[in-house]
Amino acid sequence: MTPVTPVVRVAEGEEDLALVHGVRREVFIVEQQIPEDEEWDELDATSEHLLAIGADGTALGTARLIHGEQALRITGGLPGRVLLGRLAVLKAARGTGLGAVLVRAVEAAGRARGATELELHAQVQALGFYERLGYTAEGPEYLDAGIPHRTMTRVL
Predict the structure, then answer these.
(1) In angstroms, rounded to a whole number, what is the distance separating the alpha carbons of residues 45 and 104?
(2) For residue 6, which of 1, 52, 132, 138 is within the disulfide window of CB 3.0 to 4.6 Å?
């Protein structure tokens, strides 16, 4: 596939959040059959959502940055650590480098908030993708929404 040069921006307002939710619905609920009540959580309200928009104005992908008190709670109080979550790229844009663009955008947003480390909870099938971006797996494999995951981290 040809590389995608999308505009990646922080989702602002209801229209952008509807696009974020549309991408996540397609990838997680429809494709991966994750139950809807497991996809939407309390972290959505306090996270920074990034949205990738193609040249034609359509949403292609999204990711969220979990920071502040929520990040401290999830990481067990590790200062300087933020989390990348809900990375989703629509099928039509996969293999174009968009996933890496979104990861780097979340890293930059984390650095802008003073973060020194980023944590993510990767589906096991995506470990190689994150390893190529400099992430290291930690701890044992575990199930999240019935899908095997590993925690991964990277110093920013």
Answers:
(1) 22
(2) 52
Model's pTM, two decimal places?
A: 0.93
CB under 8 Å to 125, separation ≥6 — which residues?
none
- Rounded distance between C-alpha atoms, residue 106 and residue 62, angstroms: 10
Asked if 114 and 89 touch (Cβ cutoff 8 Å), the reply is no
What is the secondary structure of 10-27 as a DSSP string? E--HHHHHHHHHHHHIII
Tens of pLDDT, residues 19-30: 999 999 999 999
CATH of range 7-155; options 3.40.30.10, 3.90.1170.50, 3.60.40.10, 3.40.630.30: 3.40.630.30
Tens-place pLDDT, residues 70-91 = 999 998 889 999 999 999 999 9
CA distance 152 to 137: 4
- d(C-alpha 15, C-alpha 19), whole Å: 7
Average pLDDT on 109-118 reads: 96
Q: Which residue from 147, 89, 156, 95 is spatially nearest to 121, judged by alpha carbons?
A: 147
